[in-house]
Each structure stands twice: as C-alpha cells, then as structure tokens.
Amino acid sequence: MTIQNVLLPTDFSDTADQALAKAIDVAEHFGATLHLFHVIDHLDPSWYGITNVQEETIRMRDQIRNEAEALLEDMASSEPSLSLSTEIALEFSFNVPSTVMEYAGANDIDLIVMGTHGRGGFGRFMLGSVANKLVRRAPSPVLTVNPSASDDAPPEDPATTGVLAPIDFSKYARTALRAAKTFAHTYDVPLHLLFVAEKRTVPTFRDTGIPGVGVVGMDDDIIENATPALDDLNQDVGGPTVNARYHVRHGAAAHAIVDVAQEQDLNLIVMATRGLSGLDRWMLGSTTERVVRTSTCPVLTLRAETEEEANQ
Questions:
Q1: Span 163-310: which CATH code?
Q2: pLDDT score of 120 more than 50
Q3: How far is CA 192 from CA 162, 184, 232, 244, in A?
Q4: Helix crossing, 171-187 with 226-236: angle to 10°?
Q5: What is the SS3 assignment for 147?
Q6: Which residue among 143, 175, 231, 239 has its CA within the 20 to 30 Å range from the CA of 117?
Q7: Dist CA 8 CA 37 (whole Å)
C-alpha cells in the first residue's frame, strides 16, 4: 500500500477537525501531500422559477465561497506542525459524495480521511451521510474518525500506537492485512491479528415442514488451530516484517473487534469491504459497518483487491 496523496473532505465541524489531526499525522508519516477539500451544496433558484432572488443568490454564493476559501486557508496555516505539502480545493455541487470521489480520482488520492459525523443546517453537508457513502463506494481506502465520546473529552492523540486486523481467512481479509502491515511498519507499532469464533444462525426445518432458525457454533478444531493459521496467513501475504500478536475470541464479531481494540489500547482498525456486482459499487459486510459505527478509534476500510490486482 502506497500513500502519496491524502484527502480530507471537511465541513469545518469539530469532528472534521479531529479528522484533520489524523490526516496530518498520516500524511507526515508517509511523506504524502495533504489535500483539504470543501464542497458547497449548490442551489440555483432559477430552476424553480424564482428569478427575483437570482441576483441575491449569486451574491450569497460568492460570499459563501470567500468564507469557505478563508476557512481552508486558515486550516492550512494554523497547524504549526503542518510542514508537509498542502493542496486546497473548493467545489459547488448537488452531490457531495460524487464530487469527493471525482476529486479523488482526478488527483490520484490514495487515502480519504474524514469524520463520521458533521454539521447540519442549510448550506452545510452532513458528514455522516457523506462518510457512509464514501466508505461504501469510494475506490480509495477511507479512514473514518469518530467524534470524542463527549465535548469535555480531551482530543485523542492522532499517532497510531497499534494496529488491529480482524481476520476471517477470506480473500478480503488478505487485502486488509497487507494494508495493516504497511501502517504497523510505517508507525513502528505492533500488529494485532484477531480471529473471532462467531456462532452462526442457520435455517432449520421441522418434520411439520415449518421453517425455523438454529444457532451453530464453530468447529472446535478450527478454533484450536486459529492461532497458527493466523501466523501462517501473516507470513503468506508478504509485506514488511512487523511485530505480530495473535488473538482468538468468541462472540459477535463486531463487538469482539471493538472490545479487543479497547483492551489492547489500539487506535487503528483495518478492515476490507466486500464486492457487490455492478461497476464501482461496494457493499460493506455487516460486521464492518457495525465496527465503523461503534468504534471509538479510527477505522480504515478499503475495497478488496481483485485477483489480478493482488498478483501485480
């Protein structure tokens, strides 16, 4: 995984400021250019036959652009540690997620960093809905940052202290593991691999023909061999050599992932999205979606590589 360009879409909210700290930290560690990007929701009243306010709308639009540009410039200059290369961009758009993805594609963005909640109100896009769509659809990896638990909580140190890679031994997990090893190596921190022995709900049929559901536990042999299997996978995917630690837990996968991250004081979880038929569309597995929503530490989600990409 190579990171040369990091994109921070911002709505200037407190959560976006927390995401900025993480974006700066990642860009500095990887020596990447940081792109600060704001999208203004577009409104043209002439579309609705309200021509008498057209002139006032244009004036307000210019004022909004000037204010947004000033905020972006202030954001870039107010960080004393921001010695890295910075690009500033501003766009008007009806579709914020699509505009962010278009900018990412046109500027070779390797990583999108953004908050999971934003500022509401007319003229401000809700970062939550934008983040959700980008995590599902963006071709670039997306690093989401949840807001602090409370307004009184001190801001979290953005520096990565440990990386957690949940593993289900699928091809998608291999994609995430390669990225997790890159981050662990770049930050010189331990990499934790986690396997969750999760019970499955399966359909059942009674003699009466009435369908039902049953709960099936994972085979004991699989659980007993999980740790050596994690070690084999870590060696097999290649990449940089890192200090790896292995965990096996029982229970619901999403809860176990978040719990292990908290117990081990880790502040980066790396997971892959799963492919969905159709061009440029990706659907999160339910576990990944829950982790993104509930984790108190940043979560890096990335689309699974095709076999052709993985072999390059």
A1: 3.40.50.620
A2: no
A3: 7, 9, 14, 6
A4: 70
A5: coil
A6: 175
A7: 6
**What is the per-residue pLDDT for 306?**
47
In degrees and rounded to multiples of 5, residue 89 shows phi and psi of -145, 150
Q: What is the pLDDT of residues 209-227, one digit of tens each?
A: 666 555 455 566 667 788 9
Q: Check pLDDT > 70 for residue 241.
A: yes
Q: What is the spatial distance between Cα 111 and Cα 99, in angstroms, rounded to a whole number?
A: 16
Q: Is the pLDDT of residue 84 over 80?
A: no
C-alpha pair distances (Å), 112 with each of 28, 34, 36, 144, 218: 15, 10, 10, 8, 36
Q: Give the C-alpha separation, 291 to 299, whole Å.
A: 8
CA dihedral 284, 148, 92, 64 (to 10 degrees): 170
Residue 212's pLDDT is 59
5-145 and 163-310, same CATH topology: yes
- Map out the domains of the chain as residue ranges: 5-145, 163-310
Residue 114 per-residue DSSP state: E
| CA 21 – CA 160 distance, rounded (Å) | 12
Q: Two tokens at 276?
A: 């969905």
3-state secondary structure at position 297: coil
Region 48-70: mean pLDDT is: 60
Query: Domain 5-145 class?
Result: alpha beta
Q: List the beta bridge partners of residue 249.
A: 196
112-116, 225-229, 254-258, 275-279 — which is least confidently predicted?
275-279
Q: Is 265 left (phi over 0), alpha (psi -120 to 50) or beta?
A: left
Q: 246 vs 133, which has greater pLDDT?
A: 246
* Contact indicator for 81, 24 with CB cutoff of 8 Å: yes
- Scan for tokens 């934790």, then name that residue: 192
